[in-house]
Amino acid sequence: MTEDRMKLYRTAEGALIESGGTIMQLENVAWDAMITRDDLFAHLSHLTTSARALPNRNVAEFRLKPPIGSQEVWAAGVTYFRSRNARMEESKSAGGGDFYDRVYNAERPELFFKGTPHRVAGPGAKVAIRSDAKWSVPEPELAVLVSPTGKVIGYTIGNDMSSRDIEGENPLYLPQAKVYDRSCSLGPGILLTSTPLPSSTEISLQIDRGAKQVFAGSTSLSSMKRDIKTLVEYLYRDNSFPNGCFLLTGTGIVPPDSFTLLRGDEIRITIEPIGTLVNVVA
Question: Taking the chain, what is the end-to-end CA distance rounded to the nearest angstrom?
Fold first, then answer.
């Protein structure tokens, strides 16, 4: 890890910083108060001078929790051309196919509420598929942590679990297709960096069923039509987030129409600078 990057983890044993290959434990910190600071990178850089070093320890040894406190989770839709095509195809029979083409080409992005903290799963935890859905998929996404003032202060991995048949039946069913218990996961930690992630940053998805890989795909941030700054600016218009928020920035990886998640499937989402988020379908 370069000196201008560090990772922050929320664990059952307390908050951890990983910097320069060293794990450090933060004592007596309030998670919400810490991750809502505009100067979080500089603040943590200062804390590393007094944090307790844990030599020869690995993050995987700790019980990781989702890196969320009391924040809301929001999401952006149809930010990749691949997602636009998939949404158009799934809703064609309901006569709503052109809705998604219009969203993709519009100035205003599609933004929707995704979940509250109790609906969010962490690393290694189970995510869910709706009992009344027949076509469910994960949506691997870059998630950004945004401060109360609208500043992007960190990056993590998000999984926007979705019921494609419910959304495809009628676009107005989007909230039911997207928002339910364990419909979202975040983690494994928050990447803090003094510079934005480059557009070449890759997102990859792997789904295993038993010992067999049943799907794999990848994309990069360069395929996003809308930039993160614009998404955040629209989200914060006439809207307040006293504790900041997490914003999922959309997916460019869509399994084929013949694929649906099953109970026991393992979902692995990797964004190299951040890590890998692993969840199993309940």
Answer: 34
The DSSP 8-state label assigned to residue 41 in this structure reads H
pLDDT value at 82 more than 80: no
**13 and 105: one domain?**
no
pLDDT in tens, 158-173: 999 999 999 989 889 9
Which residue has 């700054």 as its token pair? 229
Residues β-bridged to residue 185: 121, 159
Instruction: Check if the beta carbon of residue 190 is closer than 8 Å to that of residue 17.
Output: no
Please check whether residues 78 and 39 belong to one and the same domain.
Answer: no
Residue 31: CB partners within 8 Å, gap ≥ 6? 10, 15, 69
Q: What is the CATH number of the domain that holds 88?
A: 3.90.850.10
- pTM higher than the cut 0.90: yes
Mean confidence (pLDDT) of the chain = 92
